[in-house]
Amino acid sequence: MNTLQLTRRQDYIIVQMHRGKVNAINYEMVQELRQVIKDIENDPAIKGAILSGQPHYFSAGLDLIELIRYDHTQINDFFEAFGSLYLELVQFSKPLIAAITGHSPAGGCVLAVTCDNRFMATGDQYRIGLNEVAVNIQISQNLTEAYAFWMGEGLASRYILEGKLLTASEALSAGLVDELLPLEEVLSAAENKMQHYLKADTQIWRNTKNKLRKHWLDKLDLDAKNSLKEAATLWWKPEIRTKLEAYVESFSNKNKAAKQK
User: What pTM, to 2 d.p., does this model score?
Assistant: First the structure.
């Protein structure tokens, strides 16, 4: 694994995203996450998973610096794979808990909202949310349903259309995260919740999770190609492309300036 670090506990696994300082999501990370989730789902000895990040970053979202260089086939493959990962996480039958160790915008939030619980580092310097509209990436119907499942349709609608990134305290108030803790305690809280879940009968717990998510699952577009086809198509719209390239150039210049200090 090049982008993930796996830590095996007695009966669950901690899946830590570990790609650079900010865990920006590229095709390789998506495929590695898909393989790990599949392996955990199919291994009866592993009863659950915790998805974690690095200090100050759960994931900064899609790696636009890399994605902007993808050709048509590569970007189609990426969006299809990312859509498949999302569906696989939403339908994951075992306990899945997010230890949000800092910033989690856009793609980072996509991963987080699939989880059964989200424990986030306290501090309003950290941001989380589906801000795709603000960065000119088409959001899918599947993602709008996830937001509405956790926060309610009205609030989800307003925040998505605004492209709003929530502070940690706003995310707690909105119901997007369960609890705020000091950074160094986030993973421990996720592990405590996992250990609590694993005390229950396995089949009863999984049946109950499926029942609780039934209305959400019923609304899913299970064709990953179809659900993110709009995003892949609009990626090449000239006006959007220009804005994305300007954003990437600005971000790259900030990184260069920071390294020179």
Answer: 0.94
